[in-house]
Give the backbone structure.
Amino acid sequence: MSDDVLLQAARVVKRFPVSSNALFRRSREQVHAVDGVDLEVRRGETLGVVGETGCGKSTLARCLTRLYPLTDGTVVFDGHDISTLSRQALRPYRLQMQMIFQDPYSSLNPRRRVGSIIGDPFAIHRMAGGSTRKRQVQELMELVGLNPEHYNRFPAAFSGGQRQRIGVARALALRPKLIVCDEPVSALDVSIQAQILNLLNDLQRELDLTYLFIAHDLAVVRRVSDRIAVMYLGKVVELADAEELFDRPRHPYTAALLSAATDIDDEGPRERILLRGDVPSPIDPPQGCRFHTRCPKARELCATAEPPLESKAGDASSHQTACHFPVEEGEQLAGGSTAA
Amino acid sequence: MTQAPPTVEAFEARPVEDTRLIEAKGPWRLAWERLRRDRVAIVCFLVIVLIVLVAVCAPLIADLVGHKPNATDQLGGLTPEGLPKGPSWSHPFGTDSLGRDIFIRVVYAARISLLAGVVASTLAIIVGAVVGLFAGYIGGMTDSFLARTMDVILSFPFLLFGIALVSIVGPSLGIVIGVIAFFSWASVGRIVRGQTISIKEKEYIEAARSLGAGDVRIMFVDVFPNLIAPVLVYLTLLIPAAIVFEATLSFLGLGVIPPTPTWGNMLAESLGFYQVAWWYVLFPAAALLITTLAFNLLGDSVRDALDPRGERLFRQ
Amino acid sequence: MIFQDPLSSLHPQYRVGWQIVEAIQAHERVTKDVARRRTIELLGHVGIPQPARRADDYPHQFSGGMRQRAMIAMAIALNPRLLIADEPTTALDVTVQAQIIDLMKQLQAEFGMSIIMITHDLGVLAGLADEVMVMYAGRAMERGSRRTVYRNAYHPYTRGLIQALPRRAAPKARLTAIAGLPPSLIRPPAGCPFHPRCPYVFDRCRSEMPPLAAVEPGHRSACWLPVEQLVASGERST
């Protein structure tokens, strides 16, 4: 593994058993949340992961930080294989990779004071105690733009944006190398989103952080990411530098996502690529290419053979697509009908 | 307009400086304020304080009134026909079949009831909370085992069991407290287990795990504070239930044995005389009623204070 | 009216078809059969495949997009002249959102409905709205045609909102946030409710609420800043 890769995931698989309803029947069905993902996160970059509901991006994030055990595959963090480590063995790695959660209202314990919440990492890893800890917590609060005098307040006293800052402070406490941001601004008002995105950006520069940024909002992902991975139904379907992805999407799903995105510069309704139907269930994903049931370009091959993630002719080696018939330059995909 | 409007320049990126807080108080403070404003709660609380004071000061009151609880008085305490005397200056609540002063007996009985009620409930809460917390958090086989145990206990006919136990071992206050605690902890455990299971799924628990916190730490630092509120409510409702349970056992002759007065055994004794001595039934019954009512209403108010539906109104 | 979260605005314990039939029968004297036939037709019309079968499903058996379509079917069942859509696409994925907006436009043309669309997503309105009204703290702050308000906003709040959004045209530009917090509705600020956060605040703003007044034909704004100054500065939210 080259020196500039901080996190490398290979063939990561995560399946969940579906709980059956009948008292004694054991269900064989499984949710294929993440089904074979290869990914690498380079030092100092922001890798965006984008996709819609059910694509597995949140599950992937939790697999990479080993909040979930892996069903299969490997995760190597900073040269160390953490794929099968026990919780005890993982503890030192927890210092180096942290997570920021989506919902500012449920990611903070409502019955604990903010100072105690931010100071948790110090307490858990027995790093600093008493007044040293308090001082460090207050420094962190200032760093993220909170008033350190509010150390003893409860989360209820803070707004959504401020609570998210508390979450950021908590994640930063032990100076991790990697921060996984799981939809950190999705639950915030638009005007507050900008504040938090600016903050994350500033912190990345100041503290030399690496981000794995998960979101469903393309505009947000574009703004923060260096590279972007697009996920669909448990697989990465396209991976490219941010601008490259937006300028020349090769995968039909990416093209549809981009075309569906709204922008205030639009002059009235646009011609959009409308996909057919809804996302299939991850319990029983389609055979072959998972996207073929909704793809405007699907052909016979797509229903039988799964396309590998590789760079196509004419693309930079950093631009990889998993598609048998990628979108060509200037090609207009047919707008599908709204009925499935 | 004394000030000219500013010239409009491009919107500059303002440094993020706004650190004002929403005017929200902490959850405990809010609950306390709600409780303070609840008149029913205040009245009930005062009534309970009064009852406790009376119970604690029972010997003093005995001296004041001049009667002892077990002092039978065949001559002065009964009518010429040998029946209990009605309320009078010397006996505010009248006398019972043995000429004893009912007032002072009611006062002394309060001690037993409160003791049984509070001690048994506290015991039940402690055991139930710990078991429920572990069962809910650990899950798996441990949870299955503990949950089934609680279900079994809850399906016991506790009165029959209590009767059987007391018949074997013999009645006493300790047995009564033990029996009450034994049958109550399971319902606490069930509730705590349910709460724990729902808390376990919250994002802040996941956050604690991602920080590297161990299970025990999460249970006691993160889950437990969220259990205090429901447990507190349940305690205030468990106490009156325990008091009634004790009264029931004593009424059946299985609790505290005479001559020690409890409201339960006083009621039992009064059965034979209710046609001629209404005071014999009324005062112990009223004492029992007022005490349980006070605790129940206070419990309702505590629950409303800790968990009003309106709390969700200002979530964005 | 259609609501934001179709999972909680459809009754989870009644079949979808039944709910629509109930809506129809509440207003029109038709038999259950007729109502049911119309329900199935409506469900097909809004793009639900196999409508006769799906009408007997429960809401949790539908996906998010389909539930929203079912809600729309219920809303148009009685041929309303006005459809009020309260954040109909907020809970949906972006590709499904595109489908639903497309559906709404289609139905609007067919039924000749007026639509009031409530949303926080300015982008969604860009593709759909003819007129836009911006609200803050329970008051209307700006009103005009969509083009005018987006390209030529006068109210500082509207400008702030627009400048806080990442734009396709300038994806990496530093976003300008609106400082401060949304106002308390229990103790709203005196005068103009936006004044604590407004970069152009001056003393009149703190005491008097500006009326929603015309700044140009067909465009109204509630702000004390004189129009000439805004025009002269040449600032446009590009």
Remarks:
- Chain A is about 30% helix and 20% strand.
